[in-house]
Amino acid sequence: MKATQLLHDLGQSLWLDNITRDLLDNGTLQRYIDELSVTGLTSNPTIFDQAIKNSTAYDATIRQKLKEGKSGEELFFELALEDLTRAAGLFRPIYDRTDGVDGWVSLEVSPLLAYDMASTLAAAKELFARAGRPNLFIKIPGTTEGLPAIEEAIFAGVPINVTLLFSREHYLAVAEAFLRGIERRIDAGLKPEVGSVASVFISRWDAAIMGKVPEALRNKLGIAMAQRTYKACRTLLSSPRWQRVYNAGARPQRLLWASTGTKDPEASDILYIKALAAPFTVNTMPEGTLKALAEHSELGALLPADGGDCEEVLAQFARAGIDLDALAAQLQEEGAKAFVKSWNDLMEVIASKSAALAKAS
Fold first, then answer.
1. CA distance 201 to 225
2. Strand, helix or coil for residue 294
3. To bridge 222 with a disulfide, which of 17, 39, 202, 296 should be the other Cys (CB 3.0-4.6 Å)?
């Protein structure tokens, strides 16, 4: 049996961290659903940047949108929503079968709005409404500035994929924002079933300290931070406060492991996949990692609910001079800046392709 099926059977959702029109048009995404147990997908500006830049599949639609007077950001969201609503349709049977637990796709708001709560909230509401699909997450970064927008979006009934989390503390702050939004819905007499995942990035920890710690600690930081976060999640979801909202009909916010492609060429191609196997979580993986996983036929032990030896391992990193809190803040800040750069690159691709197609027509 493929390891993809094994992972699915133990209760973890496998999502694809990619979306292109070619994947939709040539049936590849449907094949991944049918043969590799894929039950959702995530997207980001970098993914769309590469998809639009490296394919002619969008050209006809761009020409049409240009005739309609669309350009720039507006044009991009038209393209993205077309792709993601099609993907949401493919995953809709999974969404229905799991009663809304699985079968989601994700679309990111403009990262240029990261420090503007009101605009982020307005964009989240608009994009979700335009998509017209119940299984579409809107992605909002879980930065300090993003927390109020997350709470307000949940209160407004907009499903949210909180992205750019790196540490236990990042996760707990986001879980609190989600829970406040749900509790406010309950107090207001609204249905508390609003979907959400909290996306914790893994491999960037190890990439950030490559060559700066003893060889024995190589590629162990991201996994240890995930173990610490998973323990906090399990503890939180069993707390009296969370159990009260379950009793009112709410659903827990699931942990999602992101950035799980192996960046170290000397490490296993499924290093993070095997280490982070845990029921009722999501692992969103690049296409190459998904294919690599399908070549395997076994997995390791489940992620320990008590965090395993993570504190001992993290203490070793501290002794090696790694300030974990400072590095978490640095990774989140760098991630936010990278999102902005990717967004600007994407807008340049949209502009250049629009100009070339307009000239050719």
1. 10
2. helix
3. 202
| 346 has pLDDT over 90 | yes
Whether residue 114 is predicted with pLDDT greater than 90 in this model: the reply is no
Judge whether 104 and 133 are in contact, CB under 8 Å.
no
Cα–Cα distance between 346 and 11 in angstroms, integer?
A: 35
Other beta carbons less than 10 A from residue 71's beta carbon = 17
Nearest 10 degrees: Cα torsion 343, 345, 346, 349: 160
Q: Is the pLDDT of residue 172 over 90?
A: yes
Neighbours of 36 (CB within 10 A): 19
Give 102: exposed, middle or buried? Use CB within 10 Å, 0-12, 13-18, 19+. buried
Can 2 be counted among the known catalytic residues? Answer: no
184 φ, ψ (degrees, to nearest 5):
-65, -35
Which position among 65, 70, 139, 274 bears the catalytic label? 139
* 92 C-beta neighbours (distance < 10 Å), count: 15
- Alpha-carbon Rg for the chain, nearest whole angstrom, is 20
